[in-house]
Amino acid sequence: MYSVEVNCFTGLENPQKTCNNFQLMHKNYQQVLALVFAVEEINQNPNLLPNITLGYHLYNTYHSDERTLESSLKWLSGQSQTMPNYSCRTHDKSVAVIGGATSTLSVQMGSLLELYKFPQITYGPFDPLLHDKVQFPSLYQMAPKDSFLSVGIVQLLLHFAWTWVGLTSTDDMRGEKFLWNTAEEMSRRNICVAFIEKIPVSERRQDDSHVAFMPRIIASSAKVIIIHGDADSLIILRHSQPLIFTSLKLWIITSDLDITLRARHFDSYAFHGALVFKHQTCEPPGFSDFLKSVNPVKYPADIFLKSFWHSTFNCSDEFAKLERGECLPNASLEDLPLEYFDMIMSSLSYSTYNAVYAVAWALHEMFLMRTEMGFERHGENFTLQPWQLHSFLRNIQFNNSAGDPVVLDEQRNPVAKYDIMNYLIFFKQNEIFVKVGQFIPKSLLNQNFTISENSIIWGISQPTVPESVCNESCGSGFKKLSCEGKPACCFDCVQCPEEEISNQKDMDHCMKCPEDKYPNEERNNCLPKNVAFFTFKESLGMTLTCIALSFSLLTVLILVIFVKFRDTPIVKANNRNLSYTLLISLTLCFLSSMFFIGQPTSATCLLQQTIFAIVFTVAVSSILAKTITVVLAFKATRPGSRMKRWVQPRVSNFIVFICSMIQVTLCGIWLATSPPFPGLDLHSEPGHIIIVCKIGSGIAFYGVLGYMGFLALGSFIVAFLARNLPDTFNEAKFITFSMLIFCSVWLSFIPAYQNPKGKAMMNAEIFCILASSGGLLGCIFLPKCYVILLRPDRNTLEYLKQKADSRSHSEILPGRQKFKKKF
What we know:
alpha/beta; Rossmann fold
């Protein structure tokens, strides 16, 4: 009932002289009344302990180690003067002790009571350390296990997205276990611990404890602080916190702390808005009515009640007035504010109530067993020894008047259930608890967690849900980048790469859009791609179309010119049929580029590459036939040459036919095995799905190109060797230049074809078709058209004879000069 501040104690002086500043802990008196209520209920119950009346002794512990031992020695001695190993009691032997609001007090009492094998039933919070039956064989814990408390707290943190949280607990084994479990659970759910502070267990260091940890708590950027401990630790914390700083924090408090026990008034609002995990309890029937009926007149022998009444109702110092009922005759406990007394049964009072019943049921079972065995019928005197009660307490199991099961076997001890309460302080310091949620653990994978966010009233400086994060969240379109040497909750925000998005906050990784979608500029959403293809309506498509048509018309015009002047020497000189074939094939080459423009279909994809390959092969083979004809014609002019039979039109036509049929065969194999087909290019252009023609078999495609390149290289080599042959209309020089352009264009196309995709790939192939065809047309036929149209005087037999005579004269003259020099 009392808290006490203890000065430095060496053990030599009297403990009474070192204790000062007694302060009545008013609310703790409910635990005493719970004990009285249970005893009176049992004594009035004819079915439980019939013909036996329970009694009790009350001793104060003062929440002090020294005074706890002193009270225990007084109880063992039976008088105010402590006499170890001696008891003056003769007729009222006690059989059990119910005590220990904290683990520290339970240990202090248990170490002494264990010497005499007294059963000790502690009503304080469950402590795994006290579960050790080797060290504490006579100690029993009434409180339910807090095995899932850390899980419930982390569920609350996750609900409000609090990822930067401070931990404060008592500096003992129970506090260490709580810190370990909570930190581990927080780490598993990606919540970071901003700091860990430990509150000294003994209040001897109360005066200087705030120097050690309070400045760090206040200075921390964490807005949410979890407090775990007992009543003493909270008092120490409240002695150390000014309102102006602590009101900036949100406190999450476990059920073992009573935040209504204020140390002084100026910090009353420090915990306003706190969230408290309280044990769920079912109040026994009649307890509220019992509390309303309690007064000093009803219990005149209770000196604690007199002191309590005097302190809470500010009565006169004369206790006689209390006994006569002259001090507030109509006063009732229900009139007291929450800071003095709570009419709702607390978890400690509930455990005290169950502890009394546990002792009663153990005694009942023991007496019942003795009756069944016949000891009582023989009139034997029975002296009850405390150690005899242990076997019954270990196996006791019953339902209390509220319907809850009660067991003292800690292996079967139920897991605690929690109500989440919102602690509020209103004007004139009226305090209330409002239930805003609950946490009912069933298993590790099955928990019932509910919270009513709209019902919560936050702190004075926090009108809305507070944020407790190490740094601001990364918005959509960004991802978290961990900082070296910092916790995982402290990170930088970087924008997602070009082809990735993040559509949620605080994403660790960006994700790619589906293939049929693309990221928007903010990179937080995927937009559907537009289906597109290379069309005539585009500026580049229209330009290439105009160029192709223009070159086609120019080629047809040159063909018309050649047909019109077919009997002139310049047309007849180099096999006019090959010229016609070459011009027609070049016309088709220019027009074949049109297959690459427009929406690809199965038909256009088949025709694109095959028509292009065949007509180009015809053109190149025609040029090859021309160069071979020039070489054969020169050799046939020599006397006695047998080459004249090869200088015939059918030979050149045969060359064109054979070379073209080989390409037709290759294209037929290509179409039969893996033909080109329409396909989708999803990646070449952001925001677009390009319909293109897939080549099918890459080997066949490059085989066709390779064969065409082989013919072009052969034509280039033959033309290059025949470029200086003495012929009037020798085309070898022009063919050499034309094939040089042709080979250069297609050699540059092959590596360029590997990199661009989509429309760029088609543009590259169209450009190569137009450039190579234009090179052939310009180098071979434009010089001849120049002569035919602009210099007709050079396109006559007389001019040819004069040119031939001058060439012969220039060849004979150097020979004669050499002959003269010899003589």
